[in-house]
Amino acid sequence: MNVPGHVVRRVTAADAAQVQALFALDPHYFVHVEGAPLRDDEALVTLDERPPGIPLERKRVFLVDDVALLDMLEGYPDEHTWFLGLIFLAPNVRGRGFGTHLLEALRDHARERGARALRLAVAKQHPDARRLYERLGFRFIDHRKRTVYTGAVVELELMELAL
Q1: How many domains does one find in the chain?
Q2: Residues contacting residue 151 through CB under 8 Å, at least 6 positions apart
Q3: Is 80 exceeded by the pLDDT of residue 160?
Q4: Which residue from 48, 161, 58 is spatially nearest to 103, judged by alpha carbons?
Q5: Would the pTM count as exceeding 0.85?
Q6: What are the distances in angstroms from CA 108 to CA 4, 82, 114?
Q7: Is residue 49 a part of any domain in this protein?
Q8: Neighbours of 142 (CB within 10 A)
Q9: Quick check: is 133 in a domain?
Q10: Each residue of 62-112: pLDDT tens digit?
Q11: What CATH number does residue 101 fall under?
């Protein structure tokens, strides 16, 4: 993935400590958005998490400038859709347009690889993120519920951007 003006690299399990350190910059994010505290192995879970039957080869996790993480699945839920599972920004880079810049780069990256849609789920308790996605052209398509590791249920809004 190319983000002009930024260093982007693909993340593997060998980078788990660095990803965990990034997540630790804002442990309240996980309570607020996921409904559960940051786990000691959150990075490893993130790097491996995917729906049943989806091979790890279709998962793409990128670290951008060591301050942002993009986690996505290529060809999910169908062969022409990419699913953004997580966009995490360090607190010091939020609110400056960096997230918009990353989402635009991701949109272009997916489109160049044949995707026809980019999909994501946003937690209902994260209205700022939803406003960003709407501004970029994502449209609401469905409601979902997700049970997190503590047993808490998080309400999600599924959104999609036609490419």
Answers
A1: 1
A2: none
A3: yes
A4: 161
A5: yes
A6: 12, 12, 10
A7: yes
A8: 11
A9: no
A10: 999 999 999 999 999 999 999 999 999 999 999 999 999 999 999 999 999
A11: 3.40.630.30
